[in-house]
Amino acid sequence: MTRSTRAAMDGGLRATARRLVTGGRGILAADESVRTMSSRLEDAGVPASAQQRCAYRELLVTAPGLAEGVSGVILCEETLRQHLADGRSFPDGIAGLGMLPGIKVDTGTAPLAGAPGETVTTGLDGLPDRVGEYAALGARFAKWRAVFVVADDLPSPWAIRTGAHALARYAADCQAAGLVPVVEPEVLADGGHPLDRTAAVTARVLAAVATALADAGVDPAGMVLKPNMVTAGAGASVRTPADVARATVEVLRATVPDDLAGVAFLSGGWSSATAAANLAAIRELPAPWPTTFSFGRALVNPALHTWRGDPGAVSAAQEALLVEVRRNTATTRAAA
Ligand code: 13P
């Protein structure tokens, strides 16, 4: 690649990354794997099939006016290759509706040898070819999730190193293919640990990820970071949104570069109300990067449970999604 081609590609990546996190909008994560989506459908009383997964994702992305609050939609590979009722592919349809189509490129987690109770995210083999194909199918950005558990002496240094290393390799592969990486290191909220412990673990994880990304030559301005908010464990007493916001911004400021395109938080299994309140408090604090949402469950759960596979409930389900999007978009705008 010539130097000018590289510069043009970097400029395009930076513009796409900025578009994902600015303008008061955030990212809709609708990229559950076939297995996870099937079990969520079944929990909602919907028989799982490729058609039902497609119908549900179509309901989400075609919610009227979704693009007012959503900049991009993360899909799983199955959906990337499916089509809307009007015949357009999902990526074409999403782009036509004014949003950026994205794709989850990791292939899930597997036990990490040498680290009992911990996992490593899989999917690096063949990734350069896959991301090239996803870009050709219309994807503009790509997500990879690394998961870290908090327990007595976990996460281990080895799990942090391997997780950070994989995130950096994936992010470099994405930028080389012209896709914006959405880098997701998630410290799970499972457990009864206090907020200070989440802060210490998140700081160790983010510092390792920042070092690995720099080692791999990843352009911070051409990527989005998708971290957990720094909360107490789900089994501990809840802390106020102001506490969560202060700890979250402090940890991020101490560990990640100022020139990141932006930070888009995951919701981590917290209720829609809790995730929105914490995000609103984060947005009130000064930070060098735009902060917004890249929520899955906190945006889509009410819609799924309103729909339950009933074609007559599509409009009500779409409205349930829009209520959650507006709640988070409004906080983003209010603080912008
Ligand atoms: P949650 O917001 O439900 O945590 O999901 C975000 C996500 O993309 C998980 O990989």
From TrEMBL:
PANTHER family the record matches: FRUCTOSE-BISPHOSPHATE ALDOLASE
EC number(s) stated in the UniProt entry for this protein: 4.1.2.13
Full protein name: fructose-bisphosphate aldolase
Upper lineage: Bacteria, Bacillati, Actinomycetota, Actinomycetes, Pseudonocardiales
Listed pathway(s): Carbohydrate degradation; glycolysis; D-glyceraldehyde 3-phosphate and glycerone phosphate from D-glucose: step 4/4
Source organism of this protein record: Pseudonocardia parietis
Family as reported in the entry's similarity comment: Belongs to the class I fructose-bisphosphate aldolase family.
EC primary class: lyase
Domain of life of the native organism: Bacteria
Keyword terms, alphabetized: Glycolysis, Lyase
The keyword Transport is annotated on this UniProt entry: no
Alphabetized GO MF terms: fructose-bisphosphate aldolase activity
